[in-house]
Automatic annotation (TrEMBL):
It is found in: Nucleus. Its main location: nucleus. Residues 26-56 form the Zn(2)-C6 fungal-type domain. Transmembrane segments: none annotated. The lineage of its organism: Eukaryota, Fungi, Dikarya, Ascomycota, Saccharomycotina. GO terms for biological process: positive regulation of transcription by RNA polymerase II. Keywords: Nucleus. Residues 64-86 have a biased composition (Polar residues). It comes from Saccharomycopsis crataegensis. Residues 55-86 are annotated as: Disordered. PROSITE patterns: ZN2_CY6_FUNGAL_1 (PS00463), ZN2_CY6_FUNGAL_2 (PS50048). GO terms for molecular function: DNA-binding transcription factor activity, RNA polymerase II-specific; transcription cis-regulatory region binding; zinc ion binding. The keyword Nucleus applies. GO terms for cellular component: nucleus. This is Uga3 protein.
């Protein structure tokens, strides 16, 4: 483990992510980038890092005596030992203590996640406390200017996060060390009443989980700059983050905190009616959905997804969530998990693709998604390809995957498990209707081919990266999903079999990029790529190499429960040889296993 930070000659005492006011007299560069200037003279930290000229409004350095009251510097005397760093004296006022779950003798006695009965979103329910008539149309403002800049917190010499230790080593150290002896990764406000195992879980989320699943640098990671500040004031979010850390650390008590967070969300859903409260509820539902998915759940995450969809409807739809960066984060996160779910591939997404596209095309709010990198538009295209082909083929063929055949207990499920069965034209169609549907299939193929050619990462997203080294993995992952999109396209509209040269060429190119990106910052967005490549591995040698690649992906630290489920699905696909398309194979497996899977 890294050397104890208590041995430093000087240390700073920070709040959780800090709540000191944003500098009013910092340099113009920091103000333009909405960063808290450290006001070091002659050049602040940010200007030194990016090589910019450091210009102060007054032209003079700040008075050193005017230091933030929320930061205390303590000089270490030569003959005196500092108090334990795990017990800092914070200078913040006391407030009501959030509720943290009490220990229980048997975790299994707690309910997992019972179905939540949420109100209908229709406007013909004016008596509903969630009625659209009661929603404040003004965009939410979390007043993030009152939150101390996270970059200063992470980059502080005295309180940085350890970087010279592997994830596996840290997990081992955490699990085999007495809680009272664990060196805290950061200060957490006393008023949050987070102690013992709760603190251990929360620190692990901050140090490992939030960075491991992110594709972007810490300063643009919304788990840091959106969810952590919210957790200071919202018990539901706080317990959700604690649960998430527990899922990855030892998964012994994480369900307890998840259930507590869910109970708080249930209460909030019944009493909160204004826009700010609805946004907070949406943030919590999306958080709990992510916790369930990362644990390997294939059932309960859908409950939180449905709650989130209902809240989005109450807020006015996806298009109402593009006016601020925080709201856009939530809309993008929901879209990511929705369009890559098996249900959205089979029955269509919760919202129209045209609505989701507004997340990535609306002007005025620039950001890059923490989980998706710059690939979000391609994920929308892939979902649209699958659903548009399904709609046409279900009319053209009598034994394709029409809505009438999607019941789990339907006898047609045997066909889904054997996708090599030949498709049969619908005998009720006239020759003219059949010809028209075939023309529409060809027309849609050309449409999506052109759409893929035109799809490029936005400059506003790529501008977040300050070096070629940071940029390259994101351009590579975009190229990866261009290959994946083409595989799905030619199989969906041209019924090109996996054994064809066209598919195998694309699989080979995609596999090479997967290999390169396994240890990159974008490793958390490779799941769908592994799914499509795995479904199209046709030889025993290729399949063995594929499984070795997946194992390496996990060995490098991406130990997500959902990945295990995806691998189970791929093995199930390999049991049924055939040339079915992506939807046919996906549908056959998830119906056979009775799963609701999301490939994130």
């Amino acid at each position: 483990m890294p050397k104890s930070i208590a041995s430093k000659a000087i240390h700073k005492q920070y709040r959780f992510v800090g709540i000191s006011p944003r500098s009013r007299s910092g340099c113009t560069t920091c103000k333009s980038k909405k960063k808290k200037c450290d006001e070091v003279f002659p050049k602040c930290g940010l200007c030194q890092r990016i090589g910019a000229e450091c210009i102060r409004p007054s032209g003079k350095p700040n008075d050193p005596s005017k230091q933030s009251k929320n930061i205390t510097k303590i000089a270490k005397p030569n003959t005196q030992q500092l108090p334990p760093i795990s017990q800092p004296t914070l200078t913040e006022p006391m407030a009501s203590q959030p509720t943290i779950a009490e220990p229980t003798t048997d975790i299994n006695d707690l309910p997992i996640v019972p179905d939540y009965q949420y109100p209908a979103s229709k406007q013909n329910h004016p008596s509903s406390p969630h009625s659209l008539l009661l929603i404040n149309p003004n965009p939410l403002d979390f007043n993030l200017d009152t939150i101390n800049d996270l970059e200063d917190f992470l980059n502080s010499q005295e309180f940085g996060f350890p970087t010279d230790v592997s994830v596996q080593a840290m997990v081992s150290a955490y699990q085999n060390t007495q809680l009272t002896h664990i060196q805290p990764l950061c200060y957490i406000p006393d008023r949050l009443n987070v102690k013992g195992k709760e603190k251990q879980y929360l620190e692990y989320f901050i140090h490992s989980v939030a960075t491991n699943i992110s594709t972007v640098p810490s300063e643009t990671n919304y788990w840091f700059n959106f969810y952590l500040p919210m957790a200071i004031h919202d018990e539901c979010v706080l317990n959700g983050l604690i649960s998430w850390g527990g899922v990855f650390l030892d998964n012994t008590d994480s369900r307890r905190y998840l259930n507590l967070s869910k109970d708080l969300l249930d209460v909030n859903l019944c009493r909160n009616t204004d826009r700010a409260d609805l946004i907070k509820n949406l943030a919590c539902a999306i958080l709990l959905q992510a916790v369930e998915i990362s644990s390997g759940d294939v059932k309960h995450w859908v409950t939180f997804s449905q709650i989130a969809a209902e809240l989005i409807n109450q807020l006015g739809g996806i298009h109402s969530l593009v006016g601020s960066k925080e709201e856009k984060y939530l809309a993008s996160n929901f879209a990511f998990h929705d369009v890559l779910s098996s249900q959205a591939m089979i029955n269509g997404p919760a919202f129209k693709i045209e609505e989701y596209e507004k997340i990535y095309t609306s002007d005025g709010v620039e950001y890059i998604d923490t989980l998706q990198s710059c690939v979000g538009p391609l994920f929308l295209i892939i979902n649209d390809i699958v659903n548009q082909s399904r709609k046409l083929k279900s009319q053209l063929y009598s034994n394709y995957y029409s809505a009438a055949l999607l019941m789990r207990n339907d006898s047609a499920v045997d066909y889904y498990a054997s996708p090599s069965k030949s498709l049969q034209f619908n005998p009720n169609l006239s020759p003219g209707t059949r010809l028209e549907l075939l023309k529409q299939l060809d027309s849609k193929y050309q449409y999506f081919l052109d759409k893929l050619d035109a799809c490029q990462p936005s400059n506003s997203e790529l501008e977040y990266f300050t070096s070629i080294g940071q940029l390259v993995p994101h351009t590579q992952v975009f190229q990866l999903y261009q290959y994946i999109s083409q595989i799905v396209l030619i199989q969906a509209f041209q019924d090109t079999p996996p054994s064809s040269a066209a598919v195998q060429l694309l699989v080979h190119q995609a596999s090479g990029l997967l290999e390169e990106l396994l240890t990159s910052p974008v490793k958390g967005v490779l799941c769908l790529g592994f799914v499509v490549v795995g479904m199209n591995c046709i030889g025993e040698q290729e399949r063995q190499e594929y499984m070795r690649r997946v194992q390496r992906w996990q060995d490098e630290g991406y130990i997500i429960g959902n990945v295990r489920r995806v691998m189970e699905m791929i093995r199930e696909c390999w049991k049924n040889e055939g040339d079915g398309d992506f939807l046919g194979k996906l549908l056959g497996v998830v119906r056979k296993l009775d799963w609701d899977l999301t490939m994130v």
